[in-house]
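We emphasize that the prediction below concerns an isolated chain of 232 residues; any contacts that depend on oligomerization or on bound cofactors are therefore not represented. The input was used exactly as deposited, without trimming of termini.
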Amino acid sequence: MKKINLLLLGGTGLIGTEVLKSILFYPQIKKTVVWARSSAATAYDAPIEVQSVTWESFSKGEITFPSEIDAVVCCLGTTIKKAGSQEKFKEVDYEYPLLAAKKAKEKGVKAFLIVTAMGSDANSLVFYNQVKGSVERELAGIGFPYLGIFRPSLLIGERKEVRIGEKIGESLGSLIPFSLLGLKKYKPIHADFVARSMIKTLLSKVEQIETKSTPYVEIIENDTMLELGKDV
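Result of the prediction step, given as a token string:
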């Protein structure tokens, strides 16, 4: 199988951190470039290059898109509370991914994978879901040979900040038999399951992407990720 080079966006977040941990187990990944505001060395024993990048400088054309990238894995995401406003939230979850995707397409990148959310819908009355759905729609219009959209339910994992809703979701996840009730799609999911699902899905598509000329969009829902993410 061909070895591939990745560009990881959002590598310091919950899912992005798990992506970095997971790539150690996949020799098919030759190199991973991580864009972050800090260029501090990582603790991972893997071919990882951390580049100090701000989105402001990238949008102004001051940052060169890395060469020889086969796929972009986008784990950018915030909350309205953390961002400070709906406008700032949209900037991170909508404008940045689209900016990177358009530049990636110009550079001949074959695949773009992004984490959005269950319930994403550009026509939703809920602002969060509307933004997530809108970025999905715009990305689909760019025309990547492969666009993978991952829609997790409530995310659980170790964050730097405490999110009460996620702590409650983690407790419910251990108490409610979602699978037995036919509600697996809604079961809270650990970030490492999402990360492994992204990598496995990408690697399973490598040969196909190389020969595919028409755009293809795949939506991976929460219940599928719960199965894909079980094992490395």
